[in-house]
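Narrative summary of target 7.
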Amino acid sequence: MNFDNIEDFGFDLKSFRNWCEYQSNMKSMPSSKIAFGRTHKWFGNEVILVHPAVIKKGHWDETVDRLGDYILPGWDCALLCHYRPGVGMKPHYDHSVFEPLVGLVNIGYATFRIGNQEHQLEDGQVIKFDSSILHELLPVVSERWSLSFRRIKPQFLRTYPTNNVCATKLKLIEN
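Modeled conformation, tokenized:
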């Protein structure tokens, strides 16, 4: 895993935390057997994690766009997640629709386990990891946000014709 800090990319930690806290349209995943109790919002492409995955146009935000270009150039989707105390993610492998490399911004503190190694994630820390390795987020003890950037495997994408700024950069699939 690689470790950096969001400020290494020219982003102010306090401003980014405020940006996270002011996000609206956060959704829950009540049927998830892995991510219990968290809320989330997709940027770029929204990926509905069923088999086969359903991909549609997500939200667009300049902050996400710029940060993603630094952390994971060529990203297709970004997932903002909010975890309240006691919320985590059970051990899992990411959906097969994604390339394995994930770039993640951590806001708050968390214990992240990948394989048999535990990592204490610090506030503002940026990590990259292989999501094809079993990984989990232990239940957090205080509020935590994460913004994870992923690439979607090319065979799952097709061109989405629109004048939307986001779609000029990303290949999107319409409902």
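Confidence is low (pLDDT under 50) at residues 159-175.
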